[in-house]
Amino acid sequence: MQKQKIILFDFDGVIVDGIDEYWHSSVLACKGYLLSKELSSNQDYNLDVSEIFSYIRPWVKYGWEMVLITHEIIKKTNPLNNKNKKNFLKNYTISCQKILEKNSWESTNLQTCLDNARQYQISNDFDKWINLHRPYTDVINFIRKAERSGFKIGIITTKKKIFTSKILEKFHIFPELIYGYESGTKVEILTNLVTKYEIKCFIEDRRKTLIEIVRNPQTKDIKCFLADWGYLKDTDRLELPKKVKLIKLKDLRNLLANSI
Ligand SMILES: [Mg+2]
Asked: Of 31, 86, 215, 256, which sees the most CB atoms within 10 A?
């Protein structure tokens, strides 16, 4: 039997620009749930997105890391700022690990703080929360067109599935498949999907994730696109491996016609 054709997307940085929401929810997670002694008690919850936060965003893999980074930016003493950000990013993963250890935090607890902060906003002012997400209109239109052309749509994200569905509903997108962080790593999810579907492509804005996919024997043949419009480091576009192609928003118009 012929396999159903499917187009797969990452979510944050590919379908929506959620930086305002991540910052806002991370501040709320720090102040309302993390209960860190390093924060001042009269901190404003409605801060503009920190420039440092936006700068560091391309390094982030999981939501909990954003809570940790936000804590470092808003803490009282020795905050993460323009002067010391390069040092923090020199070895991003180790920097995050050191902060976890110093505070005796578990990444899962930080993730729970973030999820609770989101749930709180959804329960109290859903419209305000949802409006913090800005969709990439060209991508939304592309998804609709792909659906009309008979493609199944799947989303693979490191956000929790329930939050992703709520945001997509707002844009009237109802993909049959949504995988959140609860479903495992992206490589694991794709390894499973590749046996069931004819995967036409995967569009993602994290270069490292795409490299893992094309290096993994089970997923190496998936056509991988790096989303030019997403959260990219300056160097991410350079010297991409052969199997990972940079895609721009304008390229989406011809993607279906070019028989991806
Ligand atoms: Mg992303």
From this structure: 31
Contacts of residue 108, Cβ cutoff 8 Å, sequence gap at least 6 = 64
Is there a contact between 122 and 166 (Cβ–Cβ < 8 Å)?
yes
Domain of residue 93: give its range: 19-130
Task: Say if residues 63 and 181 touch (Cβ distance below 8 Å).
Answer: yes
The whole-model pTM stands at 0.92
Rounded to the nearest angstrom, the distance between the alpha carbon of 113 and the centre of ligand 1 is 20
- Spatial contact of 62 and 111, defined as CB atoms under 8 Å apart: yes
CA of 134 to the centre of ligand 1 (A): 14
pLDDT of the residue at 47: 72
Can you give the pLDDT at residue 45?
Answer: 64
Going from the Cα of 49 to the center of ligand 1, the distance in angstroms, rounded, reads 18
- The letter for the amino acid at 199 is I
| Residue 260 belongs to a domain | no
Q: Are 140 and 241 in the same domain?
A: yes
